[in-house]
C-alpha cells in the first residue's frame, strides 16, 4: 500500500470519519488544503468557546467540514476507513446518554431514525458523495448526516470500546441509509482515545465520499448534573491528533494535526 505522510499544522482533523473525526480539535482554525498525489483534501473547523481552562475540563462544541477532490477531475477513490488518535486533553462523556444500535438505524429514513434514536443524537450536518457507474457520467448525492451515541462492547480493559454511529441518507441513486461505525477505545501516551472508523460501500462501490459539514454540540442533564459530549482543557497551548485514511486506490494518508488553544488560567 502506498504511504504518503504530511504534517497538517493548524488543521482540524476530521476528514475520514465522514463526519466524524471530528471530535478532536479545539480553538480556532482556518481552512487548509493538502495535495497528496492526485488527491486534494480540504479541512476546516472551529470550536466554541475558543478559550479554555488550563487544568480543568470545560464543555466545548465543534463545527467542522471536510472535502475530497482529484487534481485531474477523475472519479474520487473511495475512502475505506480511518484511524484517529485524539489528544488526552480532550474528553468524550456519554454518562447517562441514551444509546442507539446499528439495527435501529439500518434501512431507516431520517424521520424514522430520529424517532428510534433521537435521544442518542450527538451531532448533525450534511454529507455528499460522488457516484459513477460504468459508462455513465458521475453525479453528486447529498443527504443529511446524523451522529448517534452507540453501545459499548469488548468487555473491560484494553479491549473495551464504545461505538459512535454516523448515519447518512442519500439517493445513490435509490434512497439509501449508509452508516459508518466508529469504535472508540483508550489511547496511550499523549493520546487519550483511539477511534477506528469503518466506512461502508456507497452504491456497491461506485460511490465515494466527497464532503461533509457537521456540528457536534450535545449537552444534557443526568441525575441533576450537566454533561457535555465534548470537553477540553488547554494544558500546553495546543492539541495534537494523528489521523490515517485508507483510500481504495491504495493511497494511505497519515497526518499529524496540531491545533492551538488559548488558556484562561
Summarize the structure.
The protein has 265 residues and is mostly beta strands. The chain contains two helices and 20 strands.
Which oligomerization state do the chains in this entry correspond to?
single chain
- The best one-word shape is globular
Total individual domains: 1
Tell me the radius of gyration: 18 Å
Largest sheet properties: 13 strands, mixed
Tell me the number of strands: 20
Order of helices and strands: EEEEEEEEHHEEEEEEEEEEEE
* Sheet with most strands: strand arrangement: 1-19-18-7-13-12-11-10-9-14-6-3-2
| N→C terminal distance | 46 Å
**Fraction of residues in β-strands:** over 45%
Which blocks of ≥5 consecutive residues have pLDDT under 50?
Answer: 1-29
Q: Round the mean pLDDT to the nearest integer and report it.
A: 82
What's the number of helices?
2
Structural class comes to mainly beta
Please describe what this structure looks like.
- By secondary structure, the protein is mostly beta strands.
- It has one domain.
- The chain contains two helices and 20 strands.
- The strands form four sheets. The protein has a 13-stranded mixed sheet, covered by helices on one side.
- A hairpin with a 7-residue loop joins β9 and β10.
- The longest helix is centred in the middle third of the chain and has 8 residues.
- The chain is globular, with a radius of gyration of 18 Å.
Salient structural properties:
single chain, 265 residues, mainly beta, 13-stranded mixed sheet, 3-stranded antiparallel sheet, 2 helices, 20 strands, 56% strand, disordered N terminus
Amino acid at each position: 500500500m502506498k504511504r504518503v505522510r504530511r504534517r497538517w499544522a493548524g488543521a482540524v482533523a476530521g476528514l475520514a470519519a465522514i463526519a466524524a473525526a471530528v471530535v478532536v480539535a479545539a480553538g480556532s482554525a482556518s481552512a487548509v488544503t493538502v495535495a497528496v498525489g492526485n488527491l486534494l483534501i480540504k479541512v476546516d473547523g472551529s470550536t466554541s468557546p475558543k478559550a479554555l481552562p488550563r487544568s480543568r475540563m470545560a464543555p466545548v462544541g465543534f463545527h467542522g467540514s471536510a472535502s475530497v477532490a482529484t487534481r485531474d477531475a477523475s472519479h474520487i477513490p473511495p475512502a475505506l476507513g480511518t484511524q484517529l488518535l485524539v489528544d488526552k486533553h480532550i474528553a468524550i462523556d456519554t454518562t447517562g446518554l441514551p444509546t442507539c444500535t446499528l439495527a435501529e438505524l439500518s434501512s431507516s429514513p431520517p424521520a424514522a431514525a430520529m424517532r428510534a434514536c433521537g435521544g442518542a443524537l450527538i451531532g448533525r450536518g450534511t454529507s455528499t458523495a460522488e457516484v459513477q457507474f460504468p459508462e455513465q457520467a458521475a453525479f453528486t448525492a447529498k443527504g443529511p448526516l446524523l451522529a448517534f451515541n452507540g453501545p459499548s462492547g469488548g468487555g473491560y480493559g484494553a479491549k473495551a470500546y464504545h461505538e459512535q454511529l454516523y448515519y447518512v441518507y442519500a439517493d445513490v441513486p435509490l434512497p439509501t441509509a449508509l452508516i459508518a461505525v466508529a469504535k472508540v477505545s483508550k489511547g496511550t501516551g499523549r493520546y487519550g482515545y483511539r477511534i477506528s472508523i469503518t466506512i461502508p460501500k456507497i452504491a456497491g462501490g461506485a460511490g465515494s465520499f466527497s464532503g461533509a459539514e457537521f456540528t457536534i454540540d450535545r449537552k444534557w442533564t443526568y441525575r441533576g448534573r450537566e454533561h457535555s459530549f465534548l470537553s477540553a482543557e488547554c494544558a500546553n497551548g495546543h492539541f495534537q491528533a494523528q489521523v490515517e485514511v485508507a483510500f481504495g486506490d491504495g493511497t494511505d494518508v497519515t497526518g499529524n494535526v496540531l491545533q492551538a488553544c488559548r488558556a484562561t488560567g
